[in-house]
Amino acid sequence: MDLNLSDEQKLLRESVERFVAESYDADHRRKMANDPLGYSPAVWKQFAELGWLALPIPEEFDGLGGGAVEIGILMEAFGRGLVSEPYVATVVLGAALIDRCGSAAQKQAILPKVADGSLKLAFAHSERAARFDLAKVATTANKTSQGWRLAGSKIAVLDGHAADEIIVSALIHDHHGPSGRIGLFLVRATAPGLSISDYQRLGGGRACNIELSGVELPDDALLGDGHDALPAIEWAVDRAMAALGAEAVGIMQTLLDTTLEYTKIRKQFGRPLSANQVIRHRLADMAMQVDESRSMALRAALKVESPPLDRARAASGAKAKIGKCARFVGEQSIQLHGGMGVTEELEVGAYFKRLVAFDALFGGSAHHYARHAQLGRTSVPA
Fold first, then answer.
1. How far is residue 159's CA from residue 120's CA, in Å, rounded to a whole number?
2. Hey, how many other C-beta atoms are within 10 angstroms of the C-beta on 171?
């Protein structure tokens, strides 16, 4: 298998790395952290102009038809700059679910707007009692004469405060009672009965909790034909974990580079820290963890369109391994910077916080080690 990047992929990497290096400095990140929106609409517009919002969208809907590897290239560079724009929520999760589950009319109405930056999406699925079990949904969607009525609550909705439309998962109750199927519903962020309470995420960006109190929706708010959406949800979350893994690799690489430079400059007893053999060993261990994580993130991206069992094992394996590596690299970077590492004067602390947030998102390392083991005991259907 040839794992080298194509010429187009190399151009994508060069352009996004150059953009991030020029646009995302410490002052910009501090400004975004204190902004109620949590990101820059001007930068989002630039994302659209550069074609990054259209990257994974099919060409028939004004997209570029890119895949998970291209998303990974983009996300790794975003990690280097601690980009806080709602890319994962809108493009990696939202647009993917529309493309996977939506009708032709729904795709035509939504995906071109995502590609040109005029429509932002969010995916509301997690609930307090679910504990990262994607099949556990208590929110209900009752069939009415006019359409649907949604009731329930969702937590940790990435960038839900900035979304124009929110994709909400709910158990379908039709005229015969509970159907046992999970449906996905498009809800306007301004819909009556929908309340949003947003908060800052650790390491930058924002998320929110959502309460749905009898939200009335038309018939066509349901994505697709009402078939069980759980397989699509699992696919989209595995895809998001691959993208977030690539972002974590970019963060870890930045921490490694920053720490290596610091140990060359910082002197102790008249010698740079990097002259100490123990310090060199720790830096080498950090470099190994970064490389291992990069290979796991790439494997998860390559397996995104594989059969569900292979895809899920690759995604959980990457999430578990990268989460463990991320904590090691972050902690070593903090320690090698001494007390300065946790101050706001240096950016090391901000990068470490984003890695901690990554480990918890969609389930921590312990959860995914268990999921990976469980999937390994699952027989492949004939």
1. 9
2. 17
- Give pLDDT tens digits for 242-263: 999 999 999 999 999 999 998 8
For residue 262, give every residue at least 6 positions away whose Cβ sits within 8 Å of its Cβ, in sequence order, or none: 273, 336, 337
Residue position matching structure tokens 């268990």: 370
> What would the pLDDT profile of 86-117 be if each residue is shown by its tens digit?
999 999 999 999 999 999 999 999 999 999 99
Residue type, 45: K
d(CA 34, CA 214): 34
Among candidate residues 158, 202, 200, the one with its CA nearest the CA of residue 355: 202
Integer Cα distance of 212 and 172 in angstroms: 15
- DSSP H or E segment with residue 148: strand 147-158
Contact between 363 and 320 under an 8 Å Cβ cutoff? The reply is no
Residue 240 has a CB neighbour count (10 Å cut-off) of: 22
Instruction: Write the CA distances from 159 to 38, 102, 110, 301, 357, integer angstroms.
Output: 9, 21, 18, 23, 14
Q: To which H or E segment does residue 233 belong?
A: helix 230-265
How far apart CA 76 and CA 92 sit, in angstroms, is: 14
> How deeply is 228 buried, as exposed, middle or buried, from its count of CB atoms within 10 A (0-12, 13-18, 19+)?
middle
CB 78 within 8 A of CB 91: no
Taking the alpha carbons of 53, 34, 248, 254 in that order, is the dihedral positive or negative?
positive
Q: What is the pTM of this model?
A: 0.93
Confirm if 85 and 124 have CB atoms less than 8 A apart.
no
**Three-class DSSP category at 236:** helix
